[in-house]
Amino acid sequence: MSISALVGPVAKMKTLLVDDLAVYSMPIGDDLLGMNALIGRTLRMEFRQQINCVHCGRLTKKSFNQGYCYPCFQRLAQCDSCIMSPEKCHYFEGTCREPEWGESHCLTDHIVYLANSSGIKVGITRGTQVPTRWIDQGAVAALPIFRVSNRLQSGLVETLYKAHVADKTSWQAMLKGEPDEVDLAARRDELFDLCQLGLKDLQESHGLQAIQAISDIPVQHIRFPVETYLLKVKSFNLDKVPVVEGTLIGIKGQYLIFDTGVINIRKYAGYHIELRSES
């Protein structure tokens, strides 16, 4: 049975955690398409050669930073380099591109966490983005280890930890299968000991209340709707080949996994696509 085509700009998939299962919905224009139910179906996704900036809506020939036109990429605080490197947050230096945005997004409680996606990693996220951030990274388990009062502090703690553990996910490894099991609570304690002197210095500089260790929250386990994994991961590029077609065999992180390859939906935010599905 075929399903009527949906046409419009695509956006980062929305997620929910239901009984530890990641549940996905993909915005396409004004529609919100439940994706878990489409696993096992043949999908055809075609780029309609139109890109609109996800912030201002203007037409753009090229997308920057996952969906922005070049003027927005240059102007917006959410596109600044400190977003990828929170330890470089410069709000307190008075040079934030958008101070009001910084106040609402950076001067809020952040969580420093350990996660197991393609292996153990350290990461940071706003408190309101738990567990969304973990799902987006394809983490099968995650554990909050610190609560801090702003983004800069989270970056400084992360910097201490990434001297001992990775701070990035290998997306290819994440999409090839489940990572080896890791005792995150045990690693939390080991890493705390290794970073203890640096953490003490940060607490003396920023205050004990600003950087608080977390030890009473259990590990969050996450299951992803994947029927089978690919032995070799091939990533589709809509700018070069505008049609993606195949049987949807899983979803993990922000990736749709087809029997023919994978596509990072978040990368193509603002792209107008036509999506068709057949059983």
Please explain how this structure is put together.
With 279 residues, this protein is an alpha+beta fold. 20% of the residues lie in helices and 32% in strands. It is built from seven helices and 14 strands. The chain has a six-stranded antiparallel β-sheet, with no helix packed on it. A hairpin with a 2-residue loop joins β12 and β13 (261-264). α4 (151-161) packs antiparallel against α7. It is globular, with a radius of gyration of 20 Å. The termini are close together. 35% of the residues are buried. The model has no long low-confidence stretch (mean pLDDT 96).
Layout of helices and strands, plus pairs?
Layout: E1 2-9, E2 14-18, E3 21-28, E4 31-34, E5 42-51, H1 70-75, H2 99-105, E6 110-116, E7 120-126, H3 132-136, E8 141-148, H4 151-161, H5 171-174, H6 184-194, H7 196-206, E9 211-213, E10 220-221, E11 243-252, E12 255-258, E13 261-264, E14 271-278
Helix pairs in contact: 4-7
Strand order of the largest sheet: 1-14-5-11-12-13
Tell me the overall shape: globular
Count the strands?
A: 14
Strand percentage lies at 25-35%
**Uncertain stretches:** none
End-to-end span in angstroms? Answer: 5 Å
Radius of gyration: 20 Å
Sequence of secondary-structure elements:
EEEEEHHEEHEHHHHEEEEEE
Count of separate DSSP helical elements: 7
Biggest sheet overview: 6 strands, antiparallel
Mean pLDDT: 96
